Amino acid sequence: MHSVELLEQSLAVAEKLGYGIRHEWLGGVGGGACEFSGRKWIFVDLSLSVLEQLDQVTEALQADPGLHLIEVPSEIQSSLGLKRAA
């Protein structure tokens, strides 16, 4: 699967977990997950490569305790450190 597709699937998982997604040009000095105004957000730094953006999203998802409570596409389970269902 291509990196862009993995990023799209990861962002869809983030939205299932209640994250708002913001795509911003941050010059490589920011991005990732945060919470403000009672809402979870992931800022994706558009100045980074697709792989680096995917890393930002993956790190945010791995830190979310709710990740284990939702269905995650099999294509991205290993990148999130999840075991595939039998």
Placed side by side, the strands forming the largest sheet appear as 1-3-2
**What best-fitting shape do the alpha-carbon axes yield?**
globular
Note the run of SSEs as H and E.
HEEEHH
Report the count of strand segments.
3
- CA radius of gyration: 12 Å
The SS-based structural class is: alpha+beta
Spans with pLDDT under 50 lasting ≥5 residues?
Answer: none
Helix content: 25-40%
Strand count, sense and closure of the main sheet? 3 strands, mixed
Count of separate structural domains: 1
Instruction: Provide the β-strand percentage band.
Output: 15-25%
Q: Mean of residue pLDDT?
A: 92
Spatial separation of the terminal alpha carbons: 21 Å
Q: Count of helical segments?
A: 3
Q: In words, what does this structure look like?
A:
The chain has helices at 3-16, 50-62, 74-77; strands at 19-24, 32-36, 39-45. Strands 1-3-2 form a three-stranded mixed sheet. It has one domain. The mean pLDDT is 92. The relative contact order is 0.22. The protein contains three helices and three strands; from the N terminus they run αβββαα. By secondary structure, the chain is an alpha+beta fold. It is 36% helix and 21% strand.
How would the blueprint of this fold be written?
Elements: H1 3-16, E1 19-24, E2 32-36, E3 39-45, H2 50-62, H3 74-77
Parallel strand pairs: 1-3
Antiparallel strand pairs: 2-3
Looking at this protein, list some descriptive labels.
86 residues, three-stranded mixed sheet, 3 helices, single chain
Quick structural summary:
By secondary structure, the chain is an alpha+beta fold. The protein contains three helices and three strands, in the order αβββαα.
